[in-house]
Amino acid sequence: MTNKIKSIVSSVIISLFVFLFAYTGLSKIFHRNLFLIILRQSPLLNSYAGIVSWVLPVAELCTALLLIIKNTQRLALYITLALMLIFTFYILYLLLFVPALPCSCGGVLQSLSWSGHLILNLFLVFLSLFEILLTNLPVYKYSLKTN
Amino acid sequence: MKKIKLILPVIAFAIALVASAFTVQKHNAQKLNSLYWYEVTYDQDHPSGVIASSADFYVQDEKTNVTSPCTSGSTLDCLRGFSSQLTSFPTGSSGSDQIKKP
Description:
The complex is a heterodimer. Helix content of chain A is 78%, strand content 0%. Chain A has helices at 3-30, 32-40, 49-68, 73-97, 114-136, 138-146. The radius of gyration of chain B is 22 Å and the shape is elongated.
């Protein structure tokens, strides 16, 4: 893979995560009442529904912004991986113990089935790992500096 | 190249902003409001209330559609609503929502 292609692939992946976090974060804020109702029905989060209904969308929006800023992109990628892993384990838990509960994710993602969600999340975990590895390649680091 | 790398994530953010503002989530709001309601009993061993068995299942519906078997009040739980059917009894869980009695 040439540096130019790596750079384009990296930009596309980062833009995808920016879109994902911004879209789901803003959807949760725009439809906060609905998000709160779903959180209150979650056996894991119902005690903290009020706090989570603000902290999660704000964290998603902050991650999206950190991904946009060049100097914080690497940190944001690790946060992205951590968030995607947390979401994936949460989906696994719900899939196993509370499959009747609708998803509290924002926007059109809410219409996905739990298994569909799990597949999407696993793909996104893989993608964030791939991006971290890509940006850690020595050749790519050099191209970032010279760009 | 450098400009594209900067602009692309910003465009993604802008699209997300527009898309999230125009996404309608009405359908799921109706679906998730429906809960499994159980009657709560109080005794010496369970002063904060307990759902003793599956026989305490009352109705599955949205809170606004449930006609409570108790006189309306604000002190004790008359019915407790759960997002899914309970499988283990007795349980002192407060559930996702409650309908009170005096």
